[in-house]
Amino acid sequence: MFEHSVRVYQWAALAGRRKGVPFDPEQLYVAALFHDFGLTDRYGQSHLRFEVDGANAARDFLRGHGVPEVSRENIWLAIALHTTNGISANLSPTAALVAEGANMDLVGAGYDNFTTAERNAVETAHPHPPGFADGFMDILYKSLGHRPETTQGTGLADVMAYKDPAFRRRDFSNLMRNSKWAVGD
């Protein structure tokens, strides 16, 4: 998890520099390091989204170190929304870059935007181990298995369905068509 988080920072910083996006490297680093903190055993009983657990942990850490509220809020939003594609890119450079870094490290989104030298440097410094995808899905399932409701409407529901054949994705269309409001109850 630590190596993944550091790679997320590295991908994010490289993307920011390539795009000419101004960002605070310390805020980006903290957001990257805490972005999956809610998946740790510390939150084994939580029923919040893991992203919110991580965002809350980062905010508490930063508050304890006297970081101003505006910076804490920026980092909180970057972490809380890093799995919500289409939102982060419209918030702040920190939020956009953390989401981009996480997507690169997990699914290779934007792979061709990085040079071979950049990819090799990140790999050398913080190796992407063989079997990373399966191992990370195991971590996700272990953390989310007791709170599957938090995965609905996200790509994390795909992980739940992959790991648990009994898992059923929520169908928003059915919810709308069969709500008490729609059927008159």
- What's the helix count? 10
The share of residues in extended strands comes to under 5%
N-to-C series of helices and strands: HHHHHHHHHH
Please give the radius of gyration in angstroms.
Answer: 18 Å
End-to-end Cα distance: 47 Å
Largest sheet: none
Structural class: mainly alpha
Number of strands: 0
Sequence-ordered SSE layout with sheet pairings:
Layout: H1 2-19, H2 25-34, H3 50-64, H4 69-80, H5 93-107, H6 116-125, H7 132-144, H8 156-163, H9 172-177, H10 180-183
Helix pairs in contact: 1-2, 1-5, 2-4, 2-5, 3-4, 4-5, 7-8
List keywords for this structure.
60% helix; mainly alpha; globular
Overview of this protein structure:
The protein has 185 residues and is mostly helical. It has helices at 2-19, 25-34, 50-64, 69-80, 93-107, 116-125, 132-144, 156-163, 172-177, 180-183. The longest helix has 18 residues, at 2-19. The protein is globular and about 60 Å long. The model has no long low-confidence stretch (mean pLDDT 93).
